[in-house]
Amino acid sequence: MESREIISIALSAIRANKLRSALTLLGIVVGVFSIIGVMTAVRVLQNSIESGLSNLGAHTFQIQKMPMMSSRREWLQALKRKDITYEQAQTVAERITLAQYVGIEGWQGGATIQRPTGEKTNPNVSVAGETPEGIPTNNWTIKEGRSITENDLLHSYAVALLASEVEKKLFPRGGAVGSEIKINNRRYTVVGTFEPKGASLGGSSDNFVAIPLTTFLEHFGKQRSLNIMVKAKSAEVYEECLEETRLLLRTLRKVPPGQEDDFYIFSNDSLIETFNEFTFYVKLGVGFISFISLLAAGVGIMNIMLVSVTERTKEIGIRKAVGARRSNILSQFITEAIVLCQMGGLFGIGLGIIGGNLAALAFSIPPVIPIDWALIGFLLCSAIGIVFGVYPAWKAANLDPIDALRYE
Amino acid sequence: MSTIIRLFNITKVYQMGEEEVHALQGVNLEIKKNEYVAIMGPSGSGKSTLMNIIGCLDTPTAGLYELNGTNVSEMNDNQLAKIRNKEIGFVFQTFNLLARSDVLHNVELPLIYGGFSSAERKRLAKEAIERVGLSDRMHHKPNELSGGQRQRVAIARALVTNPSILLADEPTGNLDSRTGEEIMGLFDMLHQQGNTIIVVTHEEEIAAHAHRMVRIRDGKVERDEMVKHRRIAKSIVTS
Questions:
Q1: How do the domains of chain A map onto residue ranges?
Q2: ipTM, 2 decimals?
């Protein structure tokens, strides 16, 4: 008997009871939907974090007081640490031997930028106080004008560089360089603009202005912890460079030997690792719950298949009378269960991918289709179909043809 | 004429709770090719049990059953399924068609299990449907057909594998007498074309179509005789 034949029999049986089949499918749909939905969402976030991270240049790492992703407890503990001061950062920059650039920066969010002529941004622009080497370590590229110089830093000049989104908003027809702007009502001269970098997790990464770090500390307050960004001379000395910086900072911050660092070092790799650790438990939890809901759905499938076998006792009798073997009946009913589960699986996968990508829509980052998880989901529900279809099918296959024919 | 069916001292014992029911108690019967035999008997006589054994739906408790020279009395389920598929065409009182499938698919059914290719199946099924005069009902569902037409579909299904015997169990039991006569006419024609036919019935009129009448009572062959005044159906195949 051809498999095409078996499948067409299964489909016609499912079609004969549309509502019942649909309701049975629903359990599988929900189970697969939750797996695929979460896995898609996690992957969307992962992609966005990875693309956000590539904003840090090659073999560059960043040191800061607060963790990037952490539990609340860890966060509160980190809050108690001493700030990383400008002096500490400068000492690191002076003494380090294996670095190509050492950038120092501070960030302040929620600023409003405006022109004397009235154009104005929303109050959500970030202000970065940067040293000259902070520009290359952030992997920012100058589009027009010039970068921040040592001279700007020395004299705390009120100059600013605009990222593309701010530039577009204030100078839609160009001509930013040389113009006057106000950041939170202080006057600055625009000396340059940056190339756009694109969106990443948490919105645009082009919605900021950069000013000299010394100016930043004067205008936005000195009581803050700064970030140190180090670009190693080459990929080969990256690890050594990281170790050198760590020791330097431990000495400067008087961390006793044997005690943990009182600062965090991030690189692209370590961030991805942290994120993966975090999402691992999410995946595990969701996977477990989904698996249980799939088991419940499987029991539903089994129940319906048993009803179906009873209802179709006569049909089974007829098939046996005209020469169907046990194996024919067995494969017919197992196939029916599998096809039922797979239909549910396909719906679940479709909905899950759409649902998971709503996260992508929310963060305005490109959507993903997790082919591997779609495949796993599909195989999983096929397996459910087999496991829970075997008993009803076995029961059907072992019906006595005489009794089955007599059944009304 | 070669012997198709040879039953030798067939017994069948059922366990009904505590009680043993001796449905058949040593039945001996031979049926030759192209015979037209009626098996008669009141209910409880064991004729249904005999039919199930001849039809390979069941195996005897003891005794020998040879079908076309092969001993089928000790075959397993799969072997019996194969024999049913190739050697036996069933026609039931209640037609036993698949309600969701059209005429063509119903007639194709034995060929599906016989492993024929799709094209071959279609060709043979159409041929069989033509023989029972239902070519214009090929794609109707059973519930769109009259009782007589349904029984003719069942006969086409029984014929399609070109079996050694046609085994009909009360084939007119669910039909009015005029339609019943029509169906018997079809059997008469098939017999003339060389088929071996066994009809199980309790109606004398139906049995009178056969050449030979075997009466069963209390699990034994009571009488086995040639029919003296054969009844020939007046109408033969009108659709």
A1: 3-51+273-406, 59-266
A2: 0.93
